[in-house]
Design brief:
With 222 residues, the protein is mainly alpha-helical. It is built from nine helices and no strands.
């Protein structure tokens, strides 16, 4: 467990430093949210209806933007080979790296949501609802994205492959995340139904993602 803790701390430090990738995702999320009111126009009612979808779409694209660094940096400096050959199960190491990526790149998006919600004319209840759905759903984006990152790490054009693989897997998370946010704001669906499905998607990705990513890394590095 100490090895996994050290791996998590190492990946968080790398992600938070300049050029680590975490700041890029937050800046992209901020840019999308700031520019959208200019594109929609002065219709505040329309902006508030689109607000949850805008925040979720920005979070999805920001998460996708930083996923390519999940294994690429370790592959470039040779540390990925050491992780694969270590006594720690590769599945646990993949889960630790995904957790570190979510803490460094996903959690700041959730923290920034209450502030960015003001730009989209969302009240406090709506903003908290979107933040809660992002807290439940962004782990699914990270752990499903980890599978694509593991498949693309050994390919020269891996960035394009990563987007092709991850986006279809992320669509259910986007659908139920926006549906839960809208249900909490205006109904008529109960909030619990789409939110429970969103939590189930995150739990399923938490179980399947590390095993799939570990199998992809073993096959790609052989």
């Amino acid at each position: 467990m100490s090895a996994l803790g050290a791996l998590i701390r190492r990946d968080i430090r790398i992600a938070l430093r300049v050029g680590g990738g975490a700041l890029i995702g937050v800046l992209f999320f901020l840019t999308v949210t700031v520019l959208m009111p200019f594109a929609v126009g002065p219709d505040l009612a329309l902006l508030s209806r689109l607000g949850p979808a805008i925040l979720w779409l920005g979070a999805l694209l920001a998460s996708l933007l930083t996923l390519d660094r999940l294994f690429t940096a370790d592959h470039e400096d040779g540390s990925l080979d050491l992780i694969v050959m270590a006594r720690t199960p590769l599945e646990l190491a993949c889960a630790a790296k995904a957790l570190a990526h979510w803490i460094a790149a996903g959690l700041p998006l959730i923290i920034a949501t209450p502030v960015l919600g003001l730009l989209l004319n969302l009240d406090g209840t709506a903003t908290l609802a979107v933040a809660a759905t992002l807290l439940a759903g962004t782990p699914a984006l990270t752990f499903t994205g980890m599978i694509g990152a593991a498949l693309a790490v050994t390919l020269h054009r891996g960035g394009l492959l990563l987007a092709v693989l991850v986006l279809p897997l992320s669509i259910p998370v986007l659908i139920f995340g926006v549906a839960a946010s809208q249900a909490a704001i205006s109904g008529p669906l109960p909030f619990g139904t789409p939110f429970s499905i969103l939590c189930a998607l995150s739990l399923a990705s938490l179980v399947i993602g590390p095993f799939a990513a570990a199998a992809s890394l073993r096959h790609g590095l052989d």
